[in-house]
Amino acid sequence: MIPRKIKSSGHSIEVPGDKSLSHRAVLFSALAKGKSRVVGFLEAEDPMNTMHAFSELGLKVEKIGQAEYVFTSPGKSGLISPTKDLDFGNAGTGIRLSAGLLCGLPQINATLTGDDSLKKRPMARILDPLNSMGASIQGIGEKKTAPLLIHGKQLHSFAYKSPIASAQVKSCLMLAAMSSEVSLDYEEEILSRDHTENVFRFMGNQLQYKTPTRFLMEPPYKFEGADFKIPGDISSAAFFLVLGLLLKQGSILVKNVGLNPSRTGILKALAAMGGEIRIHNQRIECGEIVGDLEAVSSELSYAEIPPDWIPALIDEIPILTIAGLFAKGGFRIRNAEELRAKESDRIASMVENLRSLGVEVWEYHDGYEFGEIQMTAKSSSLNSWLSGRSPRILTKMDHRIAMSFLVLQAVTGLALRIDNTSWIDTSFPGFQSLLESVLQ
């Protein structure tokens, strides 16, 4: 097996606020007339870009403390067309959800854009249903990608069965229905993240569930200023949970983490692999389950990851793969084709980087697998792991790829040459300094 460098930790840490909820705090605050207070806002590039975009639309932003803001909105009917393009940087969630909200406001004309990575990401998944809903939106980049040109219109009630389990598609259409005060009958085969549904209910609205994966929302909708308390992001916590499991001994406690069931697939997968993660102080805050997570040094082994777990751990697959390198029997992930539409093609990115380490990986259209890494004289991986080389890691403008291999480097002491770590600031500013503090 791969040698583990770190003997113990015993650290108690907190990770930055949930990125998904930070985006939604901006969007719902913009819909609600009056003041909203947000505590725990993720001050990273992605949600900050969403905040800046809505400040161009008429949302007043006041910073009142560390990760604490007051948003004052004229209400959805008072939002105005921006005088310049709205730049969402690398934020796929920001641009897709904002597009839905803006499409349903007749007074809005806007162009939504982003960085080179965002301009390559698929947008047809929201463009097609939005246009069927009566919207005027088009992707003017190659292959109908961003920039997105929007002429706001009054939309009509809509029924949609999504061909993919995507919280971004679902949330986009929900926000379009909210902004135009029309009904939406939405269905998906597998339950995707339900943060938007939770915030919708927290604001005083109701959903009528026909099945666990199909709901109806109908106006009139309630939007008033609210107090949002955002927990730590489980996607960010996942890096330190895996680090805790890979300690030689001891544990790491990550406090105040969001435990939304549609996001805890990583906990189920790590538990199936033999990882011990204890939940302490579980509670409900702003409609979301929150708790403290303690990851205890564990011996991991191969486990099947069922298809219905994938939507709840899709963003954590890169760091789950790092855990898989230490698993007896190897690692396999399938039914995760959505990975190809993230900040990078994460299937191709992980496969390429693992192969640069000497790991024999089989790539599929929807995932990859590799066998147990045996540190024996006959192992084809041995030379790569222990010969003193410093393999180059290509992060492909993807923050989760960068963070995952930084964790591998920390656990093993391998001298990896990670090409660029600046992408980490899109979701987890201060990650490297926090990682270093845990290692001390």
UniProtKB/TrEMBL annotation:
Q: Known EC number(s)?
A: 2.5.1.19
What's a Pfam family in this record? EPSP_synthase
Keywords, comma-separated and alphabetical: Amino-acid biosynthesis, Aromatic amino acid biosynthesis, Cytoplasm, Transferase
Q: Where does phosphoenolpyruvate bind?
A: 19, 92, 121, 168, 346, 400
> Locate the Enolpyruvate transferase domain: which residues?
12-433
Where is this protein primarily located?
cytoplasm
Q: Where in the cell is it found?
A: Cytoplasm
An example of a Gene Ontology cellular component annotation for this protein is: cytoplasm
The catalytic residues are 315 (proton acceptor)
- Where 3-phosphoshikimate binds, per the record, is at 19-20, 24, 166, 168, 315, 342
Top-level enzyme category: transferase
Report the sequence similarity comment from the record. Belongs to the EPSP synthase family.
**SUBUNIT field:** Monomer.
Among PANTHER family, the record links this protein to:
AROM/DEHYDROQUINATE SYNTHASE (PTHR21090), PENTAFUNCTIONAL AROM POLYPEPTIDE (PTHR21090:SF5)
Q: What is this protein called?
A: 3-phosphoshikimate 1-carboxyvinyltransferase
Q: Which organism is it from?
A: Leptospira perolatii
Gene name tied to this protein? aroA
